[in-house]
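Hey L., structure's done. Input below.
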Amino acid sequence: MHNSEFNEETNDMNAATRVMLNTGALYVRMAITIGISLFSTRLILDALGSTDFGIFNLIAGIILMLSFLNNAMATSTQRFLSYHQGKNDLLMQKRVFTNSMVLHIAIGLIIVAALEIAGKFIFDGFLNIPPERLMQAKVVYHFMSATVFFTVITVPFNGSLVAHENLLWVAIVNVIESLLKLGVAFLLYAVAGDKLIVYGSLMACITVISFTLYAVFCLHKYPECTFKGLWLIDKPLVKLLSSFAGWNLLGALASLGRNQGLAVILNLFFGATVNAAYGIANQVSAQLQFFSTTLLRALNPQIMKSEGAGDRERMLRLSMMASKFAFFLMSIFAIPCIFEIHTILSFWLKDTPAYTEVFCILTLLIVLSNQLTIGLQSAVQATGMVKYYQVVVSAVMFLNLPVAYFLLRAGFPAHSVLTVGVLLELLACACRLWFAKKLAGLSIRLYVDRVFSKELMPILLASVTAYLISRNFDFPWRFMLTSVASALVYLTAIYFLGLCADEKAMAKTTMQKLRNKLGVAASV
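Output:
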């Protein structure tokens, strides 16, 4: 019994170390790619001109709307690969990979065919493109169609990397992509031909290069990544992969539908100005949500592997940790933003549209509510029984649209639609708790004890700190003081009040191991 507990504790510490290293790699990637992307965009806009730059982004935007399909399929592939890694079943991993590859090739070809057929119609008066640039726009559209195909068939390789928790290679490829795009931006100043066509073709080439980097690495590194037996299709497995991805796609569509649907409803009642405020609020929440999303991406493979190994207790423990730490990571930035939103928006934007402040606050509250049980989404995914979960949670999310419409029609203010969004997100949290209990045997009492109750005091102390500073000081850079002070109070409260005893011990050991590794690396 003692050895079993020791091995379990060691596994958790090793997993925590990998998660921290992977999270760190993704954060470094973000810092590099955002900087390069901002500079590249400036150069490309200057080289192409506003008209051609707008044409490219219009065409690329239409095609990139399909990215939610990729995300659903990637989750499916990664879940099954991680699950069978937990079982140490290499043969099944190979079958999952080859059948996933066949499925993605088929999906890629279908999407390209659909895009090419749609292209016959959307350029015939549907898109507002200057007649003299119509031919060039069509050529770029064909390049973007090819880009979609290579993006889709990259998914099995990406899923394999995530399943193996090798997010360092994902980060390296992303940085290479950014550097290549920067190179393209400089090259546009030197080319003599049509810059829009050159830009479209080179952007397609970068996608092919990224696919090649992922494929060559995975085929060389991981034994389950193979093209042997590619056409020996396992129909039941393909059906299982497709079903799992299909129900996840419903969840992705629900999220997309709620966000975009609210934009349409707000536009119907208040016009484009309110849409600008809503768009800014979504940008703020998306940037802050990145930190918790990165942690979950690093932790999800461990959750899936634990379920595959038959260790349901560890899977649930990791899921609870995911919820708690994702909430902490999100709220450490969200709390000062909520109390200093006026100052931050004034500093960031020249003219702040009406409703922006209240929209930002309510959108952040929606996302924070989601973080309360976000690890349980992974727990349900790990069980593989996602059908009814996705139906119920998606229905709750979609409910925001008819309620929003009737509220605005009854004369309620614009921000009421997001107030309802907060309440419905809390209802969705309750649904996730129920499904985690039903499907995975989660103890709700234990969840309250290890997650909810541990979050109360840190969030209260950090909020009081931010409130007192925002009310008692007044100078241009006050939001910096609020951010630093609330973060210090929050981190201290998290360590002493937010962590359970086992989590605190694991944090100490993990930090010591990281210091030792960094010390060895520095001495070398």
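The CA atoms of residues 87 and 310 lie 8 Å apart. The chain has a mean pLDDT of 85.

-- N.
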